Amino acid sequence: MDVTLKHQPSFSLAIIQVGANEQVKVEPGAMVSHSDGVVSETRAEGGLFGGLKRMVAGESFFQNTWKAPAAGGEITVAPSLPGDMITLQIGGDFLLASGSYVASEMGVSMDASWGGSKGFFGGGGLILLRVSGNGKLVAATYGAIEERTLDPGQRYVVDTGHIVGFDGSVQFSVTKSGSWKSTILGGEGLVCQLTGPGRVLMQSRSTQAFLGWLIPKLPKQSN
User: Fold this and answer.
1) Is the CB of residue 208 less than 8 Å from the CB of residue 181?
2) Cross-strand partners of 11
3) Residue 181 buriedness (CB in 10 A; 0-12 / 13-18 / 19+)
4) Per-residue DSSP letter, 222
C-alpha cells in the first residue's frame, strides 16, 4: 500500500492506495471513504481469543480487512481525535501505545498479550502493544508528533500520556515523576524512563490531561 498524509498536523487524513486485489487492515471506525469496488470483511483477528486479548489491551474486538478489486483502489482513514498521523515501516519490534493504531499492511501483526503491556495498566492509562512483522503501519497521535533518536545508553523521560511508541531496542521502565507528594499533587503522575538506542515518538497533547480538564466542567446530573 502507498500512503499519502494530508491536512497535517491538526486534522490529518491518510489516503491509502492499494493495488490489484491487495488487502489492508483498518481499525474499526477509522474508514472515511473508499473508491468503488473496495469491499470489507470484519472479523476478530486471531479468533475469539485474539479478539478478547485486543479488548483487554484497549483495542477493538473486531478488525476490518479491506480488499481492492482487480483494478486497485483507494481508502481514506482518520483517527477519532484531532491530531497528526505517521507512516511507520515495520521491520522488527516496535512498541505502540494502545489507541494509536489506524491501519497496516497484512504482514504487520500486533501482540496484545505481550507481558510488558500488563505493567502499564496502572501507568497513567498507557498500554503498550508489541508490533512486529514486515510492512507499513499508519499510526495516529493526539496533537502533533515530536520525535527523539536516542544514542546507546542515552536516557530520556516522557510522561506516559504523551508516548506514541518507540523501537523495540529501547529499554523502558515506569516510575513516579519525583517524590510521592510531587507525583500526586504536582499533576505529573507517572513517567516512562527510556534508554537508547532507538527512536521515540511523542504526542504534544495528552488525552488524560484533556479529560482531567473536561470532566469537572461537565454538568452534574440532578437527582
Assistant:
1) no
2) 83
3) exposed
4) P
Write out 130-143 in H/E/C secondary structure: EEEECEEEEEECCE
Amino acid at 18: V
Share of the chain above pLDDT 90, in %: 61
Helices (DSSP H) in the chain: which residue ranges?
47-56, 115-118, 180-185, 207-214
Contact yes or no for 145/164 (Cβ under 8 A): yes
Q: Which tens digits make up the pLDDT trace of 150-187?
A: 999 999 999 988 999 999 999 998 887 655 555 555 55
Do the beta carbons of residue 167 and residue 148 sit within 8 Å?
no
Q: What distance in Å separates the CA atoms of residue 101 and residue 104, rounded to the nearest whole number?
A: 8
Residue 195 contacts by C-beta under 8 Å, 6 or more apart in sequence? 150, 153, 154, 155, 156, 170, 171, 172
Taking residue 178's Cβ as centre, other Cβ atoms within 10 Å add up to 11
pLDDT band at residue 190 using 50, 70 and 90 as cut-offs? confident
**In this predicted model, what pLDDT tens digit does every residue of 31-85 receive, in sequence order?**
999 999 999 998 766 554 455 555 554 556 568 999 999 999 999 999 999 999 9
